[in-house]
Specification:
With 676 residues, this protein is α+β, with helices and mostly antiparallel strands. It has four domains: 144 residues, Endopeptidase. Chain P, domain 1 (Glutathione S-transferase Yfyf (Class Pi), Chain A, domain 2), CATH 1.20.1050; 64 residues, no CATH class; 160 residues, Orthogonal Bundle (Neurolysin, domain 3), CATH 1.10.1370.10; 244 residues, Neurolysin, domain 3 (Orthogonal Bundle), CATH 1.10.1370.40. The protein is built from 26 helices and nine strands. The protein has a five-stranded mixed β-sheet. α3 packs antiparallel against α4 and α13 packs across α21. The radius of gyration is 25 Å and the shape is globular. The N and C termini lie far apart (65 Å). The mean pLDDT is 95.
């Protein structure tokens, strides 16, 4: 079969021909495009003309378009629909690609030309976007060893190769541990409390695996309702301890050594480049700028959240004592939180799901994007997908101009990693009169439809969909000239603003009326439920904030406080840095770090704080919408401009242009019901 990766895709809208692509196609394609990019780099280096922005910076920016796209396709498939062949291909190719990019960033002749442009170009002769690209290009070389001697560069290269291998292995181990656990219940009496839809799904899964009874797994659509609704405390305990012990069992899938190695290598890398810690290295390119500012930010929120979390826990303990439980454990929290929520808010989450069928929620997100930004989504079967569950859409603006391809992949499967994320299969850029439009995807793990009902979302899943769709809008609306500054290519503690602000519309009547209709009767969400949903913004928010802060502190523990000479025990490290937020008993057979994909293989190392940081931004930004109307066209146009700009300017410049001032933390404290 012809290797389609070896040429431009002659497909509808230049989409990826997934059905015709095999793992074995990637190696020859990567080799071809590495050679092609190297030719372009050599041409830049050998160009006798004086280095300038166009012949050096811009030429470099567009030199690796094919290679970048091939790599993104491989990485995305390996995350969303992998198997042993895809994993093996990724493990083989990624180090080769990373090594090649290291060669480029450590190419002295190329860096000398970049440095010349940096020091000899009058900034007044460049657009803001060009200035940003020049600065970003120069820094990326310096931050990847361009100023090091050859021996140090070789050391840096070895560290990066080891990190690539370890991060892939980390993910592989967690995926195996998640997939390999199953809990079979054969006595129907042990299902008490579970909704019928959950029971039906579990029975179908058992049948698929040739078992009799009800099968539960550690995948979110199974695990989350199990912990929230099941009355049997012993089974909740069994499930919680299984989830918390993933990759923590002293076997070949154990990630303890891996996280110690990753943290140690990151510190070495930072030291080699002249930084005290990996957090210092990372935060230089963030809005927060330095570790102390992050820790002060976390401490500020901790002072507001921790006392509230303790109060909220006492409410749960009071409920649990009625069932003879004298000490709350982690497997009790979701269960009693759900009971308390029903009592305080009269909000039955299972009943609420009937108003949120997945297809209507997705259409609601589309309608909101239409009212705010003039976008229209058209479902199509002309675009190939990598799995039958994936839906494809063409996206147009209000004038009928094509803006993006949008993929939606909602349901769990063995080859998909946990969680939810947005990604890209093709970037956006403008050159020589062409506006190359992006291909954007969101991936989640929602409950599949059953024989008797469609996929119904919990309200938490509704906000998850809106969150990832917010990221997708950032990508789809991109209007940059350079791919590395387009869409979500922004400072990491700014990237969550577009996603988190989108969640706000899910709490507003004017938006909910567009899509929150009962899947059987068509009835709109009752007014009382809407009021209680809005109240839920503050329900157990002290506990939720404290929990998020615990992850932020743990992240900084690994990437700011970590000392590889003394820190050898993963559990001790975890207890030390999560200790100030701890309000539940600690279990030695469980560990967060070894399955903390966000900060080890993922991109949130020294950046997990950015979720709360962006909450400050989104609360402040949405307050502006509420003051003027949540669909106010002038405010929407201002925010659309922020989305379109991507990373072309400093995020604070973009935010102040939108809001007229810097963000204020009071908006978040007020929304969450937290008080100092």
């Amino acid at each position: 079969m012809k290797n389609l990766l070896l040429s431009d895709f002659n497909t509808y809208l230049e989409t990826v021909p997934f059905s015709d692509i095999k793992p074995e196609h990637f190696k020859p394609a990567v080799e071809k495009y590495i050679a092609q990019m190297q030719e372009k780099i050599d041409k830049i280096v050998k160009n006798p003309a004086q280095p300038d922005f166009q012949n050096t910076i811009e030429a470099l920016e567009f030199s690796g378009m094919h290679l970048d796209r091939i790599q993104s396709i491989l990485m995305n498939i390996n995350s969303a629909d992998t198997n042993e062949a895809w994993q093996q291909t990724t493990e083989e190719i990624l180090p080769v690609v990373n090594d090649f990019y290291n060669n480029i960033r450590q190419n002295k002749a190329l860096f000398d030309k970049i440095a010349y442009v940096k020091t000899h170009t009058n900034p007044d002769n460049l657009t803001p976007e060009q200035k940003m690209l020049l600065d970003k290009t120069y820094k990326s070389f310096v931050r990847n060893g361009a100023n090091l001697n050859s021996e140090q560069q070789q050391k840096l290269r070895e560290i990066d190769q080891q990190l690539t291998r370890l991060k892939l292995l980390f993910n592989k181990n967690v995926l195996h541990e998640t997939n390999s656990f199953e809990l079979l219940i054969t006595d129907a009496n042990n299902l008490t409390g579970l909704p019928e839809s959950v029971i039906e799904t579990a029975q179908e899964l058992a049948k698929q695996r040739n078992k009799t009874g009800w099968m539960f797994t550690l995948h979110a659509p199974s695990y989350m309702p199990f912990m929230k609704y099941l009355k049997n405390r012993d089974l909740r305990r069994q499930m919680a301890l299984a989830y918390g012990s993933r990759s923590f069992k002293n076997d070949i899938y154990d990630n303890r050594k891996i996280v110690l190695q990753i943290a140690g290598l990151r510190k070495q890398r930072a030291n080699l480049l002249g930084y005290n810690t990996y957090a210092d290295y990372v935060l230089e390119e963030r809005m927060a700028e330095q570790p102390k500012k992050v820790l002060d930010f976390l401490d500020n929120l901790h002072r507001a959240a921790y006392p509230k979390a303790r109060e909220e826990l006492k409410q749960l303990e009071k409920l649990a004592r009625k069932d003879g439980i004298n000490r709350l454990e982690k497997w009790d929290i979701s269960y009693y939180m759900n009971i308390l929520k029903k009592q305080e808010l009269q909000l039955d989450e299972q009943k609420l799901k009937a108003y949120f069928p997945l297809d209507k929620v997705l259409q609601g997100a589309f309608d909101i994007a239409g009212r705010l930004y003039g976008l229209k989504f058209v479902k199509t079967d002309r675009i190939d997908t990598y799995h039958p569950d994936v839906q494809a859409y063409e996206v147009y603006d209000e004038t009928g101009k094509f803006k993006a391809v949008f993929y939606a992949d909602f349901f769990p499967r063995a080859g998909k990693r946990q969680g939810a994320w947005m990604t890209s299969y093709k970037g956006q850029w403008q050159r020589n009169g062409k506006d190359s439009r992006p291909h954007i995807s969101i991936v989640t793990n929602f409950t599949k439809p059953t024989a008797t009902e469609p996929s119904l979302l919990s309200f938490n899943e509704v906000t998850t969909l809106f969150h990832e769709f917010g990221h997708a809008l950032h990508g789809m609306l991109a209007q940059s000239h350079y791919p590395s500054l387009s869409g979500t290519n922004v400072y990491w503690d700014f990237v969550e603003l577009p996603s988190q602000i989108m969640e706000n519309w899910a709490y507003e009547k004017e938006a909910l009326d567009l899509f929150a209709h009962h899947y059987q009767t068509g009835e709109k969400l009752p007014e009382e439920d809407l009021k209680n949903i809005k109240k839920s913004l503050q329900f157990m928010e002290g506990y939720a904030t404290n929990r998020q802060l615990s992850f932020g502190y743990l992240d900084m523990g690994w990437h700011y406080h970590f000392n590889p000479d003394h820190d050898k025990d993963v559990s001790q490290i975890e207890q030390k840095h999560m200790g100030k937020t701890q309000i539940l008993p600690y279990y030695e057979q469980n560990n967060m770090s070894v399955a903390f994909s966000h900060i080890f293989p993922g991109g949130y190392a020294a950046g997990y704080y950015s979720y709360k940081w962006a909450e400050v931004l989104d609360a402040d930004a949405f307050e502006y919408f509420k003051e003027n109307g949540i669909f106010n066209p002038e405010v929407a146009q201002k925010f659309k401009a922020l989305l379109q700009a991507g990373g072309t300017e400093h995020p604070m410049t973009l935010y102040k242009r939108f809001r007229g001032r810097e963000p204020q933390v009071e908006a978040l404290i007020k929304r969450a019901g937290l008080k100092h």
